[in-house]
Amino acid sequence: MVAGRRHRSSASAGDSPGDPGPLERYDAKRNFGITPEPAVRALPERHGKGDPSFVIQKHWASRLHYDFRLEADGVLLSWAVPKGPCYDPKAKRMAVHVEDHPLDYASFEGTIPPKQYGAGDVIVWDRGTWEPLGDAAEGLTAGKLVFRLHGEKLAGLWELVRISKPGEKQDQWMLFKKRDEWAKPLSEYDVLKALPDSVVTHPLGLIEQREPKVSPTRADTPLAPDLSAAVRAPFPAKIEPQLATLAPSLPVGGDWITETKLDGYRLLARIEGGEVRLLTRSGHNWAAKFPTLVGELEALEVSTAWLDGEIVMLTDGLPDFSALQNAMDARTSTDIIYFLFDLMYVYGEDLRRVPLWARRARLSQLLEGAGEHLRFSEAFDAPAAAMFEAASSLGIEGLMLKRRDAHYESGRTQTWLKAKARLRQELVICGFTTRGRKDGEIRSLLLGYYDDGAKLVGAGSVGTGWSARTARDLWERLAPLETRESPYDVAVTGSRRWSRRAAGGERWVKPQLVAEVEFAEWTADGIVRQASFKGLRLDKPAKAVAREGGKTSASEPPLALKITHPDRVVDSSANITKAELVHYYASVADRMLRHLADRPIALVRAPGGIGGELFFQKHAERTGMPGLTIHDRALWPDHPALLSIDTFEALTSAAQMNAVEFHTWNSTIRRIDRPDRVIFDLDPGEGVKWAHVQEAALLVRTLLEELDLKAWLKTSGGKGLHVVVPLTPRLGYEAVKAFSQAFVRHLAKTIPERFSATSGPSNRIKKVYVDYLRNGKGQTTAAAFSARARPGMGVSMPVSWEQLHELKSGAQWGVQTAREYLSFQSADPWSEYWSTAQTLTVATKLLT
């Protein structure tokens, strides 16, 4: 805390921050009847013992800048940093000292209205606490303040140095990173691009906890474990297991223990007074199922203990879930192995606050001389990325990564991560179909999961992965659970075709059983694709089943991607490099994949930059792009195999191979002959003013509304706009194309001075050509968030209709500005697009 300055007022140019009169300048510049910024209140007394807070707000006013604020004496000392902070000590960033702000401002996010001071959008980019090195008041007065930050994005030592002279108009300082363990070259890591979003809507937790720079002793051995944090305590009657969080990418910082992700059943061993219980996650005691394991646990030299582990069957030395399921069904458990990986209590001591490495070391000691069916789950002393690739090549499900210093915490945590090389998860069995619609043998299982609101949501089906014997066993288990009504709370519509009434041989069951399923990917509409049944999960209650994310990427985080020829210029007009393009696609992958996944793709590639030769690639004759999905040629007879981009890896590898534009079909792979949208491409001819393009979009929307069709808007990234109409995929391409042609001809006939239905430059002079040809089979349109191979590299950006009047062009945002714009958007303008079900039946009749 900065002491002794409470009654000074706000600084004027050249004065120390905080001089004179605390918040007078802040108050004088704002009309609190208009702006949502917090009004001035009495300066608070500081009673806390912790370090004072800091906040960095990202502020897009007349131009983008960052507001750096340090708490001191009841106010926030503030600097405007135009280029933002940087971890590179060589990067000295200008910081203009401005008026003090009230402490309440630290949580402010929102829009400052036009004509108000600082008009524009504000988000909280980083927050945390700070501690000065030395006397802060003296440092501020002298113009040299050294301090340490403890934030969600920034950490380590930093310095503010005044560079302006007394009497100058602006009080200018320099902000820069001090050399320490956190410093990184800008060429290696740009924190502004790597982490552009609000920490309010996308909280990260303290970076010092995510990526600690000082590691505990690396001693994952049975020698001298540090158990000083153990607590003498009564034997716990119950311990809930610690659960792992699915990791979208492998951690690159911090100190992690890496184990194989065991493909089996999680069991906690409870030993008390010689009695052994083997408890599932749902609390069932399975000791009677595994007498061999119980016998070996009883033989351990311990009277009281809680151990954590997983039972597996090994086939050729690798975990095999199907073999485990078969062994349990046949009640032959003598070959089942119990891999133990944690020890929570032993000999009257609770070890849950002991660091993980020490608990494991003590567990290893305990298992010395244990029976052949009890094994210590070994850790691998190799980089996680190398282990992940090895696991993938061996067909292993993935890895477990655990913070070396982590406590044992019941429930799901971020200190245990699971990295999946293949998509596997539990799903609730909601129904089934039978072979030939006859009783006795299951043909497919209908699947679901519970969302955050505990509603049962459909997830598709699985029809492979079992033998005839298993199919009959599934029938025997499911038949007693059959019910007349669908158990889904969220109706399965569109390509998720099940309704409340069974129309295609579907038979519903009470949602009580859980299946383990392996699959290729989640589709854009929430269906598991290419699913294979692995077995029933008898250890997990159906209500606990939630949807998990996608496969873990073995790549490093987006801004640490290894890019070949990163400095190659892709667009010389804006000096956009290949690195910028790849980083852009990495940063929008989570948004863009919803528009790409499960759709045939056409790529525009530019090996020599957009000023060189461009070529389309629609098929799989040659790709060289890891991760792209190549589909069966039978999907489109007489054509080469189609491609789709379904994962982060596929998107970034395509960008690495000089793919600039991403164009998609109007149908998904699953229903390739049934379009699920109509697209109207508004392409202005020569002499058309932008205002007329905006007017044309409104007229298209108005006509669609008269036909009882809802539509969504996006920029094209080029000269025009795209109006997109979602459809329930019922009609074929010919019918949908015929509708779009009739629609465009009606526009051109009704308003000929504005619209043209005929292509060719001479036919659209001073008119907007509405391209209906995009709606034919095999035709494609630039996907949302795709860059365009044109000077400036505009981006196709989804926007709301309310934003239409604000747009300046169809290329308002480009590769260099789109991600910053998105960091200020708290709502998805297309959020309702995905759930809108509508058909062309009525609209077609009205047009004819």
Automatic annotation (TrEMBL):
Transmembrane segments: none annotated. Keywords: ATP-binding, DNA damage, DNA recombination, DNA repair, DNA-binding, DNA-directed DNA polymerase, Exonuclease, Hydrolase, Ligase, Manganese, Metal-binding, Multifunctional enzyme, Nuclease, Nucleotide-binding, Nucleotidyltransferase, Transferase. InterPro entries: DNA_ligase_ATP-dep_C (IPR012309), DNA_ligase_ATP-dep_cent (IPR012310), LigD_ligase_dom (IPR014146), LigD_PE_domain (IPR014144), LigD_pol_dom (IPR014145), NA-bd_OB-fold (IPR012340), NHEJ_ligase_prk (IPR014143), NHEJ_LigD (IPR052171). It comes from the Bacteria. Residues 329-451 form the ATP-dependent DNA ligase family profile domain. Its cofactor is Mn(2+). It catalyses: ATP + (deoxyribonucleotide)n-3'-hydroxyl + 5'-phospho-(deoxyribonucleotide)m = (deoxyribonucleotide)n+m + AMP + diphosphate. Residues 1-28 are annotated as: Disordered. SUPFAM superfamilies: DNA ligase/mRNA capping enzyme, catalytic domain (SSF56091), Nucleic acid-binding proteins (SSF50249). It is an enzyme of class 6 (ligase). This is DNA ligase (ATP). It comes from Paraburkholderia tropica.
